[in-house]
Automatic annotation (TrEMBL), chains A, B:
Subunit structure: Homodimer.
Similarity section: Belongs to the PurK/PurT family.
Protein name: N5-carboxyaminoimidazole ribonucleotide synthase
Classification via PROSITE patterns: ATP_GRASP
The organism of origin for this protein: Flavivirga eckloniae
UniProt catalytic activity: 5-amino-1-(5-phospho-beta-D-ribosyl)imidazole + hydrogencarbonate + ATP = 5-carboxyamino-1-(5-phospho-D-ribosyl)imidazole + ADP + phosphate + 2 H(+)
EC number: 6.3.4.18
Domain spans labelled ATP-grasp: 111-297
Keyword Repeat: no
UniProt keyword list: ATP-binding, Ligase, Nucleotide-binding, Purine biosynthesis
Pathway: Purine metabolism; IMP biosynthesis via de novo pathway; 5-amino-1-(5-phospho-D-ribosyl)imidazole-4-carboxylate from 5-amino-1-(5-phospho-D-ribosyl)imidazole (N5-CAIR route): step 1/2
InterPro entries linked to this entry: ATP-grasp, ATP-grasp_carboxylate-amine, ATP_grasp_subdomain_1, PreATP-grasp_dom_sf, PurK, PurK_C, PurT/PurK_preATP-grasp, Rudment_hybrid_motif
Length: 384, 384
């Protein structure tokens, strides 16, 4: 199939910032793109060839959209998987596969998948309803503290709570969930694996993620992670095994904990371009977005190593501000060495909403990390 | 002015590949863009916020378009300059300035500008009509060989001819022209200068341009140029002085000859993103396109040095093929180390038409140059 012609159509479910950055690279390859999103304000509205309005969780919307394209991919996991399964049966190539998405969409099923495939992850218990947790504690089957996670629709820290006392359980939604052992860890790491339809596989360098303590969102991503080689090797092997277990095509971002004993435990995965790979646009030989395209189009994969050290800072809405967004001091950060802001194009800010990110690249990773702190201190996403 | 809001509008005259790559970076900054082009098939049709159809040489089309934007820039020099002058008088910021474009659009005026500003360029004679050249030769005012150049609308080698004998003059259009001394040169070099509205100035590294002998089009651009430091310094100084002489805002690409004596002579300039800077997307800390935006929006300029060595190969239509384009062996080149194709999205190919370019980046410039030759040998732009 000739991807470099207008006879070929690539479908993307979701029109947010990940889709927007993916579209940038489709333009470079002149690939014809169709995007489905429920918002007329979606960042992907502009750079796609066709923008379709529709609910990603609606069977008909996804099915009818998917019927018009040759290859279908996602930029968000919360899509109607039944429709994807029907499309696969009719010969549409769907990457990631519906089966993978079904496993990942439910955190309990995702965790069970790791166990079944002999992949390291923190011990956990499954519950059909949060209300069952009290009884498990009373019976001695579960001990405090633990991490409560909603099985469905967790995204960026919502649906996750550290439970230290029984009171912490109050107010949690009464839904399917897991209680995961609270593992003290040194670092949160991530590895992005890319695998094309022919099965060629490459991994990006291990990155280190520093989280915002309150919002449970990634604050800095540091590439490569400043960890011992043997830990990096272990993390890379776990990520590769995870990609193989899913028989995955496209990008798979594997988030992991580095424990106090330097073991590596899978936290969760994302079968798409991921926040932990944004610095690849400036720092890597091939960006994660270009790699995702190469993989799903079954083209040769590009180099995954880095040209220079890279640090990514998320730009999230400041607390106390809601409304038309203003990027305060953006000119100040643009004066700094090797700084590139990426503004996602969302009109409205609200506390902790992802509004953009900033990449800092430098020959010297520690210098990049230092500048990243200056960036973080200077820029503020506020409202008019 | 807040560029990062939809109240601000950036206008771009021309919707070709340079505009397309510029738009990529406007998306990164979420800058609202309006593009004017005469073709409904223009590569910029997709990624702009507003696409306007209109003739770039038509006063009303350019004026009416320009009235709707805050800052107006170009991706091609052949635009109606009277309209730009009128817009400037009404307070629209026009970069490059109408005065600069008027000087550059006419090669005779451009050459005279260099002389008037004490900038080095090859000796030349001006003629109102080509027919006057014979008499000048007869009178001993001009000696063979020389380079004939049409004063108007030269682009990519059209309107240029090396005249060795009187017969070579036959068939040339009878237009305003210059006859330039044929200077034997070692290398063709280029330096891109970027200057923002506040007057901050930076230069990209000197690049080496290797030309296709027949088509008079750049075949390879090598960054940095493999020349002695003192020649690089001289070329950079000449480029900076040229930018200052124009009081230029935005990118100014200065093409130069390195003579046998290691003198540097200006060949011509382009007041916009330029073919000699495409490798900056992958090789430089800041791409030429991002720098152009930073400059015309009066933002701080980014780093202009390189992360890695870069070589650019132009993808032009192969001789003997006209019609719907096919990129033969594109998968072969994508297997090579550090290779990124950029497909401009033109449906129709014809001999020597610029259809795309390929960037090869590598820590080792000579290795990048070697791979560039493999790329050149492998890929072929043909028709269906």
């Amino acid at each position: 199939m000739n991807y470099f012609s207008s006879n070929f159509k690539l479908g993307i479910l979701g029109g947010g910032q990940l889709g927007k950055m993916l579209l940038n690279d489709t333009r470079k390859f002149d690939i014809y793109t169709c995007v489905l999103d429920s918002s007329n304000e979606a960042p992907c509205k502009i750079a796609s060839n066709e923008f379709h309005l529709g609910d990603l969780m609606n069977y008909d919307a996804v099915y009818n959209f998917g019927k018009q394209v040759d290859i279908l991919t996602i930029e968000i996991e919360n899509v109607n998987v039944d429709a994807l399964e029907a499309l696969e049966k009719e010969g549409i190539k769907v990457y990631p596969a519906s089966k993978t998405l079904r496993t990942i969409q439910n955190k309990a099923t995702q965790k069970s998948f790791y166990v079944a495939n002999n992949l390291p992850t923190a011990p956990f218990s499954r519950f059909t309803y949060t209300s069952e947790i009290n009884e498990a504690i009373n019976q001695g089957d579960l001990t405090l503290p633990f991490v409560w996670k909603s099985a469905q629709f967790g995204y960026d820290g919502t649906g996750v709570k550290i439970v230290k006392t029984l009171e912490d359980l109050e107010g949690l939604p009464n839904v399917e969930c897991i209680a995961e052992t609270l593992v003290p860890f040194k670092n949160e790491l991530a590895v992005i694996v890319v695998r094309n339809a022919s099965g060629d596989t490459k991994t990006f360098p291990v990155v280190e993620m520093e989280f915002h303590p309150e919002a449970n969102q990634v604050e800095y991503v540091i590439c490569p992670a400043r960890i011992p080689d043997d830990v990096a090797k272990k993390a890379t092997e776990v990520a590769l095994k995870t990609s193989e277990a899913f028989n995955h095509v496209g990008l798979l971002a594997v988030e992991m904990f580095q424990t106090q004993n330097d073991d590596v435990l899978i936290n969760e995965v994302a079968p798409r371009p991921h926040n932990s790979g944004h610095q690849s646009i400036e720092a890597s030989y091939t960006s994660q977005f270009e790699q995702h395209l190469r993989a799903i189009l079954d083209l040769p994969l590009g180099r995954t190593d880095s040209k220079v050290g890279g640090v990514m800072v998320n730009l999230v809405g400041a607390e106390g501000y809601t409304g038309n967004v203003v990027y305060e001091n953006i000119e100040t950060i643009m004066e700094m060495d090797g700084v590139t802001p990426h503004i996602y194009g969302k009109q409205q800010t609200r506390p902790f909403r992802k509004m953009g990110h900033v990449t800092i690249v430098n020959e010297n990773l520690n210098e990049a990390r230092r500048i990243a702190e200056e960036v973080k201190k200077s820029i503020k996403v506020i409202s008019e």
